[in-house]
């Protein structure tokens, strides 16, 4: 029983440790695994620069969510200036609410660069619905991040 209590305390404190009084993020806007508090958040531009220099590891990235899959919340677009990344969720183990658009967010996962086929680009454009701000025609080179953890700005 004591072991179970210890594990419960560790799980509880692990999920709350990333939410502090000085951030606009709250535990009820957290999805996936607990956000690691000890990892500093980078801008998307900084993370892309690290990617270009050959660093391939987990990154914590912050930015503005501008689009979300309107079918079921299975991807979102995170924007920082003129850079964007499509965020998907590790093993499709969680999704975000479809009304997440235009919130600030922090994501933790693996960033990569790839080329979308015309068919993939069209599929994503359809999933975005009429709100799509990205023009996805033909082959499109884009950054993507497979997120293990997502925290969104508290709307309350």
Which CATH architecture would you pick?
Answer: Beta Barrel
For CATH, the homologous superfamily is named as Nucleic acid-binding proteins
**Major β-sheet, in short?**
5 strands, mixed, barrel
Number of helices: 3
* CATH C-level category: Mainly Beta
Please tally the β strands and state the result.
7
Residue windows where pLDDT falls under 50 for at least 5 positions:
1-23
- In the CATH hierarchy, the third-tier topology is known as OB fold (Dihydrolipoamide Acetyltransferase, E2P)
Descriptive tags:
alpha+beta, OB fold (Dihydrolipoamide Acetyltransferase, E2P), 3 helices, 39% strand
Condensed summary:
22% of the residues lie in helices and 39% in strands. By secondary structure, it is α+β, with helices and mostly antiparallel strands.
Notes on the structure:
This protein has helices at residues 2-16, 44-52, 118-128; strands at 25-32, 42-43, 58-68, 75-80, 83-89, 104-116, 140-153. The chain is of the alpha+beta class. It has one domain (2-153): Beta Barrel (OB fold (Dihydrolipoamide Acetyltransferase, E2P)), CATH 2.40.50. Strands 3-4-5-7-6 form a five-stranded mixed barrel. β2, α2 (44-52) and β3 form a beta-alpha-beta unit. The longest helix is centred in the N-terminal third of the chain and has 15 residues, at 2-16. Residues 1-23 have low confidence and may be disordered.
């Amino acid at each position: 029983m004591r072991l179970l209590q210890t594990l419960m305390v560790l799980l509880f404190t692990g999920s709350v440790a990333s939410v502090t009084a000085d951030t606009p993020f709250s535990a009820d806007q957290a999805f996936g695994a607990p956000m690691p508090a000890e990892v500093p958040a980078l801008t998307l531009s900084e993370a892309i620069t690290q990617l270009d220099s050959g660093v391939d590891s987990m990154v914590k990235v912050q930015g503005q969510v501008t689009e979300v899959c309107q079918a079921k919340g299975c991807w979102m677009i995170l924007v920082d200036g003129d850079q964007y990344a499509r965020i998907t969720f590790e093993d499709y183990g969680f999704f975000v609410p479809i009304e997440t658009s235009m919130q600030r967010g922090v994501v933790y996962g693996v960033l990569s660069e790839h080329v979308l086929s015309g068919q993939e680009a069209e599929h994503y454009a359809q999933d975005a619905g009429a709100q799509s701000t990205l023009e996805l025609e033909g082959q499109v080179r884009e950054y993507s991040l497979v997120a293990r953890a997502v925290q969104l700005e508290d709307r309350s």
